C-alpha cells in the first residue's frame, strides 16, 4: 500500500511524539508499504523533517516528505507570467523552498515592499507583528498575487492548540479585503497528487492517515482515496461522529494500536491488494 501520512497530530504534538505511531509505520514499510509524508506545515524545509522523522524511528528518505511550502514553491515556479519577486509572510523554511526553485524572496518589511513584490506568500509566521501584516497588506493592495500555503486554523502542540497559518491568512484577507488567489495545502489535493506522482502512482491508490477531518480526510475524499482519521490531534471523537457522510474517513483510530489494526484491515480489504 501507499501511505500518505500527515505529521502534526499524527506522529507528534509539538516536540512530543505520539506513542507507537512511528513504530507502526516502520512495520508497514518493512512489510513493503510505501510511506510518504504530507504536511500542511509551511515553517520548515523538507530536509529538516527527514532528520526529525528518522530520529523518531519513522521510515523516511530524502524524497519522502512533502510540505505545503515546497508544493507552493513548485506551483509558483510554473506561474505565467513568471514571478520576479516574492514577499514571504511566513517562516524561513518557506523562503528557502521558494529560493530552491529560483525565486527571489523579500521579507515583509518596508524594504521588501520597495522591491515591488508580484506575489505575497503566506504561511505560519511566529514573528507576526502588526508591522509585518501592514506591509503584506500594502503589497496585496498594490496588486501582488495573494498565495496561502494552507488555511489550517490551529495545530496541536504539547501544550494544547496553537494558531495555524490560516489565522495569519485570515488577518491578511480581512485587511486586504480579498480572499487568497491560491490556497495550496490540504484540503486541496495538490500535496497528495505531488506525493503520489513522485513515485509514479495514482493518488486514489493511497491510504491517507491524518488527524484533520477538514484537511486530511476532506482531501482524501476529494481524490477518492481511503483514509484513517487519527484522534491524536485536532479532531475529537465527538467531532468525528458529527461528520456528514461525505466527510467521513474509512476508519477511525484513537492510538497507534488501533492504527495498526486499521491498516491491517485495509490491507486485506477489497482494494487492499491494489498494485501499481
Ligand atoms: Mg495534522
- Strand percentage, roughly? 15-25%
Oligomer: single chain
- The total count of strands amounts to 15
Q: What is the structural class? A: alpha/beta
Sheet having the most strands: 6 strands, parallel
- Give me the CATH superfamily of the largest domain: HAD superfamily/HAD-like
Ends apart, CA distance between termini: 9 Å
Order the strands across the largest sheet as they lie in space.
Answer: 5-4-1-13-14-15
How many helices? The count is 11
Question: Can you tell me the CATH architecture of the largest domain?
Answer: 3-Layer(aba) Sandwich
H and E order: EEEHEHEHEHEHEHEEEHEHEHEHEH
Identify low-pLDDT runs.
272-276
Helix content: 25-40%
CATH top level assignment of the largest domain: Alpha Beta
Q: Which ligands, by name, code or SMILES, are bound?
A: magnesium ion
The gross shape turns out to be globular
Return Rg in Å: 19 Å
Count of individual domains = 2
Mean model confidence by pLDDT: 94
Describe the structure.
This protein is an alpha/beta fold. The protein folds into 2 domains: 2-40 and 186-268, HAD superfamily/HAD-like (Rossmann fold), CATH 3.40.50.1000; 72-183, HAD superfamily/HAD-like (Rossmann fold). Helices cover 39% and strands 20% of the residues. Strand 2 and strand 3 (16-17) form a beta hairpin. The structure holds magnesium ion (MG).
